[in-house]
Amino acid sequence: LDSMMRAGNLSQHNALFVVDDSRHPANREANREAVVNFNLRSARDICYLGAEAQQALLADLVAQLPEHAAGVRFLLDASQWEGKPSYGRSRTLCLLCSVGYRAIMMDDDVLCQAVHSPLRDPGIGIGSGGLRKAAFYASEAELLQSGRPADFNPLTGHASLLGSSLGHCLHTLNEGPLAEAQLRDVNAALANVLRSDSPVLVTQCGSLGDPGTGNAHWGQFLGEDSVARLVSAPQGVAAALQNRLNWLGSSRPNIFKMPFMSQVTGVDNSHLLPPYFPAFRGEDVLFGAMLVSMHPRSVALEYPWSVPHLPLEQRAFDL
User: CA 259 to CA 301: how far, in whole Å?
Assistant: First the structure.
């Protein structure tokens, strides 16, 4: 919240919400108090959606849609997912709070700060995958010095092209006409659904710090240049994957067919969007698959900047 306050320009947003998924009453009370203190200083108040408000919303939806009560409870009832990570449930609540608007969802362990990618390639990339890159750092100080701070914040950065068209993105982001090399990862199936008016329904950005992955297997899906940086990391391959001091993102604006993981995600909720699976990991990938099924001509855009993602709790991969 403090980083959002420092970012400024919050009054330009229609509404701000904190969706509290904390399981411990003391944490919920601390979060509520943090929102109260934030609102005393902010030009735009945050609406706190705590356990009581979530339960009231659930009850109202069940009362209005009794024939869908089981499905509504599956998606929103916290008691059905006791003791399990419920990232998707929180994101579905965000979707319900923003129907008809563009929405930007931030994880609670990121800073509202945009940092340019440490690697930079010209133009724009288009493909179904394999476009993300990674770099590895031995210390947090080295990590935080790797990218240049942007002169915008993640909220305005995401909103800049969210909800626009593929044609507008290409005109805005590409440096001149598309070159043949930029279409190397566009197969016939992808080219068949891409059009100038294809809507950008999701925007993503990279992560600086913890890559947000559940295991170290993501390293095997990197391109050759990223693998070269991994094997040459002075701390060694194992430590480079375990210490979670990485940059993972795009070195240029990249157009993907299916969105996947991003600690800050923009969605154009003026279109009918699917819910997130309420619990466990992989909810973002499943959301992307359902989105493509519902809107086969839509695209996702990943910007060439990242947000610091430095969780307070200690995390480590077991290799």
Answer: 8
